Amino acid sequence: MGGFFSNKDYSFEELVYRGVESDELDYKAHMSWHTMTRAAKGKLVRHLIAFANTRGGFLVIGVGEDRFGNPNCCTGVSPEEAGSFDPSAVGTFINSYVEPAIDFTIERPVVKGKKYVIFVIRPFTTLPHVCSNSIEGELQSGVFYIRTVEASSRPARRALEMQELIRRAMRNEREQLSNVIRAVLNESPAATAPAANCSSMHCLDAIEESEHYFRRRTDSFALPQLKFTVAPENYIPGTYQLDKLRSAFKRSLRPDILFLHENESTPLPTPGSLRYISTDSRRMWQLFDSGLFCFFAVLSNAELDFADITRLCAVVCDFAGNLYSALNWDEERLTVRLEIVNPSGIRLACGKSEKYTFALPPPCSAEFVRSASDLSRHKNDNAVRLATRIGELFGVPEKLLQTLPANVKSLLEKK
């Protein structure tokens, strides 16, 4: 199925037994398409539109709720129920209520001796899907449905939600235009293959999507935030299986209050990545099957301690070096970037009396490009490079910047 939905990204058994609904997964008890009411079919259509307008996802039929309301009753469906979900008839009904047509498949796997029906819904590739016909109580014509992190499928009614749909549609249009231009210029098939096509653009899009997912869950877009990314030069989805990523992450984790906490070693698998978001939605990291890593955290106040920034630079470089060593990267080039988002008014404190304010136009960021082996071998130098640049942006005096190599060395030796 390719992309986020390649067989490397999920297993039917994992989907059936995950037991937690999300913005990418929904469960329904066993049922037959032939005996479902029109309203019940409309509800299913609403879920599919919502998944397609968000990130894509899975709707599993054959998992009911226990007495506490949790989807843990994995009963499966009967052969007759499974057979009733004929892709042609079901697809015709569903797409008569939506424009443009939804890209989905119906799988009927056997998991631990029981059969299930699983809808695999892909995110839209051109325009977002709008409901074109109403079903009273379940579907409203002219509405864009979206899937929320609370596992509900509802209309997009906030300005931010509509902006997200428009942003993704514009990105898709940009990609299609790029493909057309390459075709006109008679570029070779290798140049337009999905794995290598517009690698840097796709990587930036993935970072943007990850950041947007996080920022939608914070209290305010205006809050200052930390953003740390390590982006591969060749962004190739599906490079790693999720089990390999999980193992490499655990081996690289160095618990630190400023970066990755010890309890963050059990992320939620999503199509194409591992993702962890704290219960208060103030911190998130995401590791993609391409090797891309993103970390975001809301800053609690408008004053940062330069000692904390130095420590953060040390631990992120230590983590990145360990991670890509565990993934057996060598000469692959990586872009390491640390940014303070919404930096206006942020003060950087050096001791009790000296404070410096970021007064330049954004972004407030430090960045370098290194091979994976260099990232692993020269953690101290790379951490100093990041911290020095952040200090320069705030106007920290040279005499304080000159102490960074010794400070970083001391911090990493303690670890």
Number of helices: 13
Q: Summarize the amount of helix as a percent range.
A: 25-40%
Structure summary, number of beta strands: 22
N- and C-termini, Cα separation:
43 Å
Q: Which geometry do the CA atoms define?
A: elongated
Mean pLDDT value: 85
Going across the biggest sheet, name each strand in turn.
14-15-16-17-13-19-22
- Which structural class matches the secondary elements? alpha+beta
Classify the beta-strand content into a percent band.
15-25%
Q: Could you list some keywords that capture this structure?
A:
Methyltransferase, Cobalt-precorrin-4 Transmethylase, Domain 2; 3 domains; alpha+beta; 22 strands; seven-stranded antiparallel beta sheet; elongated; disordered N terminus; about 425 residues; four-stranded mixed beta sheet
